[in-house]
Write a structure and sequence with these properties.
heterodimer; A: 149 residues; mainly alpha; two-stranded antiparallel ribbon; 8 helices; 3% strand; globular; B: 127 residues; two-stranded antiparallel sheet; 7 helices; 2 strands
Chain lengths: 149, 127
């Protein structure tokens, strides 16, 4: 995927989704025949995101420009550690959103399909930044959309 | 390093891997040598690195001196904690004791104390 190009990444992941119709989360999260439980699934995605943002962002993610984004990842990371207090589906959506921003292959393919179908991926970080971008606002936004379905 | 850990996540070790990744990303550790240095530093007193037995005694003392707030643990976690403490007292092997301490530290949400040993155990699918 292209780093730091949200909409290009959506296009890339959608193509992959079509190519692998029938491919679902269960396959992404099966390790040696064992299916990971939701907290373990979220932890694995969190680790991918943290690893990419800490070691892989390089010069693509300017420290000051992406300051709110960094805070959001921090809060997302803590939320995953205490995932019993959050709605797993909303955390999955945030993971998908963050992965698309960072150019990481997504694993929550079911969640991604639903987000695409429900038009929930229409704004990238640059566009959301003007509307007080934060983990809390992102959580509220996706929680609202999840509740409406 | 993180990718290797990511591949080994299962339902039993994901919290330990999570704690280890926290250490790696917080302290921007990028090699196994740096991880070893980080671990050694936690066990260095008066410029001398403790031996394995001393490290274990230090951790046990620390666990007993600063008991965890049990209110924050679930019933099952309290049972697990007690069982791990009993296993630790009965265990003779150094490596097994370290494994139990890693589990105890994660269970009680303390910072990973043996990150280098934990990494090696996880890579060998021993944890």
């Amino acid at each position: 995927m292209t780093k730091n190009n949200f909409f290009e990444n959506i296009k890339y992941e959608s193509t992959n989704l079509n190519l692998s119709s029938g491919f679902d989360n269960d396959l992404s999260f099966s390790i040696n025949g064992e299916k990971l439980e939701i907290p373990a699934q979220l932890t694995r995605e969190k680790i991918k995101i943290l690893g990419e943002f800490t070691f892989g962002e390089g010069e693509n993610f300017d420290f000051i420009k992406y300051n709110d984004f960094r805070h959001c990842i921090d809060k997302f990371s803590s939320a995953v550690d205490e995932c019993e207090y959050y709605e797993p589906e909303v955390l999955k959506k945030i993971a998908v959103y963050l992965e698309l921003e960072l150019g990481i292959n997504i694993s929550f393919t079911d969640t991604f399909s639903r987000m695409l179908a429900n038009n929930e991926l229409t704004e990238d970080y640059e566009q959301m930044k003007d509307k007080n971008f934060s983990f809390e606002n992102l959580y509220q936004k996706y929680q609202g959309q999840t509740l409406r379905r | 390093m993180i990718e290797e850990l990511e591949k080994r996540i299962n339902n039993k070790n994901y919290r330990i891997i999570n704690d280890l990744v926290e250490v790696i990303t917080t302290y921007k550790i990028s090699s196994l040598n740096e991880l070893k240095d980080f671990q050694d530093k936690s066990f260095t007193f008066n410029k001398i690195i403790l031996n394995d037995k001393e490290k274990i005694d230090y951790c046990i003392k620390s666990l007993k001196s600063f008991p965890y707030d049990y209110d924050l643990l679930s019933f099952k976690e309290i049972q697990d904690y007690k069982q791990l403490m009993i296993d630790l007292e009965n265990e003779k092997e150094i490596k097994e004791k370290i494994k139990l301490l890693i589990k105890l530290y994660t269970l009680t949400q303390r910072e990973m104390i043996f990150p280098y040993d934990a990494y090696n155990m996880l890579i060998r699918n021993e944890l």
